Amino acid sequence: MKLVAFRIVNFKSIIDTGWKDLSADNITGLIGQNESGKSSILEGLSSFYDGNLKEDALRSDGSIPSIGCSFEISDKELSELFDDYLLSNNLLSVISKNKNRINITRSWDEISTEQSKMSLEQSSLIDFFNKTEAKNKPIINSSIAPLTLTPNTIITNSLYVSPINSEQSIAQERIEINSEQFTNGIIENLPVFELFQDNTSLLPETIDIIDLKNDNPKTNGIKGAQNFLTITGLNIDDIIDGNERVIERKIRSANDKLTVDFQKFWSQYVGKSNKIEIEFNLKHHDTTNPAMAGQPYLVFWVKDGNELLHPAQRSQGVQWFLSFFLQLKANSILNKDGLILLIDEPGSRLHAKAQEDVLKLFEDIKNELQIIYTTHSPYLIDAKSLYRLLAIQRSDDDDDNSETKVLGVHHLGTASKDTLLPIYTLIGVNLQHQKVIRHNNNVILEEASAFYYLTAFKKLLKIDSEINFIPSSGVTKIPLLANLFLGWGLGFLVLTDDDDAGKKVLRQLKAELYGGDKSESDKHLIALDGCRGVEDIFSKNDFKKYVIEDQSVIYETDNSTYINKSRKSKVLSAVKFNLAVDNGFITVELLTKSTIQNAEKIFEKIKLLI
User: Fold this and answer.
1) Pair 122, 210 in one domain
2) Residue 501: which of 446, 571, 565 has the closest Cα?
3) Cβ distance 583 to 590 under 8 Å?
4) Would residue 152 count as lying in a domain?
5) What is the pTM of this model?
6) What does the pLDDT look like over 302-327, one tens digit per residue?
7) What is the per-residue pLDDT for 430?
8) How far is CA 203 from CA 222, 252, 592, in A?
9) Could you give phi then psi for residue 245, rounded to 5 degrees?
10) In 10 A of CB 72, how many CB atoms?
């Protein structure tokens, strides 16, 4: 079963999130400011699983929390899960109409937060079971003669009597499942929800083999050591029984395996060339500890170059990432029946590069488990996977006591600038690292949204010419960039919107850079003819369908005016369109003729001048 959506009601700052879908690729990020309610969502999901509800989770108005989770279950899983019962075609049809989703809600007792119950919450399924069970309820009638049972007679819960012979399928003997059996079967087989705890998987300096064998939970570092062995594929007997040379070879192989795997994700160097290596060895206690003399134990090291240190002697960042790596990788191996890992602010103590390594680790294990995490960091967001994000913010930005709102991916653009700051920062970081400035063929644009739209159209129109789009941070900043490019001796064009602000900047540049010479300025300064904003390249139908993704919207203005007046983010809308083109979801064949013609005119003008 896979968690596909959640709904949290009356929990801390949350009144009602409504049903919110999670990312289909098993990685969901929650972004938002401090105190917005991100951690509350993780805590709520944890409470759904274990039933533990802290007093501080209750709202001041005394309302009782309820937390719902929607799970997707395949036909094969249903068949295996309820192998002992008969699942009617009608029941399977109802489940199919719900897109194979089963909604389960946990609610708490009004008197005690320690008392809770889990129940099915899906009107169509509840109605089905109510009708079926009412229909099959036995009717007591004294006028009915007693039944005479024979070895070839079976009775179903509908009192239907049928002969059966030995050749009939065993499936015919199964009783039709009822609502209680169905609900209990789902609840008993839910995936595990686990809140990641910092350093619970940190490797110890040493650990006795006897403690590992006895699985002593009080032993320092036992979780880390167990995870280490899980990832390397070793069991305890592999490293204490047998020929000494064979054991040494197994240990060396295990060290190499773990180090190679770890270095795939921890990309930082210590010094100029040394990468971190992880290793362990088998030793035996000497006579300084008479009670344990001769007993085997493991010793762990984190090595770089020639320096050998125990894990706890490394920096907090290395300790955290190693603990994180061991727990996630081991969980991905052990939890084949499903695990939902809840992680609050992963890598907050890590360098930006190491935070990107965390994201790489997520990508590596996403097919084995689900991850829901909170973050403030742009380095823990993938610009090509904004569909993974839920924006969490207060309904009133100026009131920390206002309720928490959860905005899905299709409404990200309506979130506040502060909520979206990690995305805006990410977009800026990406642009800084694209190295698009060349000696020639640079086109300075007003803003990032123009960069993403024109980059997308360049791909759609299959334009091979080298065109390096450079976004400014607003039309008024274009003169500064133009002067810099001129001073550096770089070839460039300036492309502005065809509005008053754009025309004003073009006039300014014409006067300042080209002494009012029209013939010279026309070689470098152009406008998006007929477009008050880059969004006006699109026909209205295309803009509604592929940019704002809402064809029901009605407006009399042009596209650029509409998006400026709406609460939608210009930049995010452009990023999403560009990603859809990159991923092949939008092709030139899908766009209207007028959109294509508008884009072609712009690129024809650019190609004439570069």
Assistant:
1) no
2) 446
3) no
4) no
5) 0.71
6) 888 777 888 888 888 888 888 888 88
7) 55
8) 8, 18, 60
9) -70, -35
10) 16
